[in-house]
Amino acid sequence: MSGLLICAALGVEAHAIRRGLPAHLPDVRVVATGIGPRRAARAAARLAGEPVTPVAVVGFGGALDARLRPGDVLVADEVRFRGRVHPCPWAALLAEELARAGLPVEVGPLLTVDHLVRGAERRRLAGQGAQAVDMESGPLARAATDRPLAAVRVIVDTPRAPLLRPATLARGLAARRTLGAVGPVLVRWAASAGPRHTTPREPVPFSLPKEPLP
Predict the structure, then answer these.
(1) What residues in the chain have per-residue pLDDT under 70?
(2) DSSP secondary structure, 76-121, as one string
(3) Which helix (H) or strand (E) holds 75?
(4) Region Disordered: which residues (predicted)?
């Protein structure tokens, strides 16, 4: 076992992941970073002092692509943040493992933002090619360029099922159960994508939307 560091924004996300993990895995750590890019950046700064292990950023996310449904699992093949793209070369490997576990999986770009995305902005960002948004993966991806990286988001809200609706609570509970199923798959992925398989890649620019992000 090569070890694994799992980062989740919310305590409820971290708890769900821990509950799903097999017992007696001393090399697997789950940490709650706090919500948003600033807190994620502070957590990322601590990565420099950590052993070189695979890093997974996991939690709830919002869909931009109208084809995604609540409960779907998006595995990022790249994380976009502040005009840079951080590739995730192990996305296909992880997606295959999640599909074998019976989870509905999609692979595509994930965009990190600093606020909830709604309505017209959701449509505008979808037009830029990203499939989902979160608020933490970007800073952590930036700090993990020398490590195998996974960014996984369980979709809670979509263009057709936005937040702040009566059904949101039920969708959140279902997403929490899905997070529990993701944990063991991440352990298997980390064993396959350990440091000896790392292929560091520099983040590359991507085209910003015509209207700059806040």
Answers:
(1) 1-2, 163-169, 194-214
(2) EEEEEETTEEEE-TTHHHHHHHHHHTT--EEEEEEEE-SS---HHH
(3) strand 73-81
(4) 193-214
Q: Which helix (H) or strand (E) holds 74?
A: strand 73-81
158-182 burial, b for 16+ CB within 10 Å, e for fewer? Answer: bbebbeeeeeeeebbeebbebbebb
Find out whether 42 and 16 touch, Cβ atoms under 8 Å: no
Structure tokens at 29: 């750590």
Angle at the Cα of 129 (from 155 to 210), degrees rounded to 5? 120
Please state, in angstroms and rounded to a whole number, the distance separating the CA atoms of residues 81 and 188: 27
| pLDDT tens-digit series, residues 57-115 | 999 999 999 999 999 999 999 999 999 999 999 999 999 999 999 999 999 999 999 99
Residue 41 half-sphere exposure toward CB, CA atoms < 13 A = 8
pLDDT recorded at residue 49: 76
Bridge pairing between strands 4-8 and 55-63: parallel
Reading the block at residue 182, the tokens are 């993701």
Spell out the domains of the chain, with CATH numbers in brackets.
Answer: 4-199 (3.40.50.1580)
Provide the 3-class DSSP secondary structure of residue 126.
Answer: helix
Contact between residue 101 and residue 185 where contact means Cβ atoms under 8 Å apart: yes
What are the distances in angstroms from CA 94 to CA 97, 157, 170, 210? 5, 23, 27, 33
Q: Which amino acid is at 55?
A: V
